[in-house]
Amino acid sequence: MSKLIITDHPLIQHKITLMRKTDTSSMQFRQLATEVATLMGYEVTRTLQTREIEVETPMEKTTGVEISGKKVVLVPILRAGLGMVDGFSQLMPGARVGHIGLYRDPETLKPVEYYCKMPGELKNRQVILLDPMLATGGSLTDAATLLKERGADHIQAVCLIGAPEGVEAFQKAHPDIDLYLGHLDRQLNDHGYILPGLGDAGDRLFGTK
Ligand code: URA
Questions:
Q1: ipTM
Q2: Which residues does the UniProt record annotate as the domain Phosphoribosyltransferase (predicted)?
Q3: 171 CA → ligand 1 middle, Å
Q4: What CATH number is given to the structural domain containing 153?
Q5: pLDDT, tens digit (0-9, with 9 covering 90-100), for 17-72
Q6: Residue 37 belongs to what domain range?
């Protein structure tokens, strides 16, 4: 079973609380999303492989550590996932960024990609899938499925806020993917919005309605 990791650091809780407030402006909301993503990124990257290397300080030779293993690719789900890219990029400026946009066909209920641009060879990469709101779990689940179809076999999923319904659906569909949340909220409403939540993350990030 995949792990559910709630990154409940005091700074994350404080900043998510500010994001929830109706009177937080888009500018502040974007900045806070970046800050929370950076703080969460610290936890998400804890499992990156390292190896020992020899380095020479001005004083003597010593042994240091460098990140080794799979190269990281950040994959925001369009469009709200874009709000988490800068935060992760600050920690890993060299990370590639793939983009995925999808919707569910109302008749077949199958995920349809309307945009997908990935760096080559997902198989040899550590994929960090970004979507701020895990509501029903549909988009995150579908995006992970599409990435696996393109060869990804090491995926972590990161959301700022999740609903229990979405967590359950995602973990059932992808028991091999660890899921990181900044906060686990109470429930979904009848329209699929998270309660207490923060409203529509895409609209709040980009100042649209
Ligand atoms: N997407 C959002 O942006 N907010 C929600 O509450 C649910 C889905």
A1: 0.96
A2: 6-208
A3: 19
A4: 3.40.50.2020
A5: 999 999 999 999 999 999 999 999 999 999 999 999 999 999 999 999 999 989 99
A6: 4-206
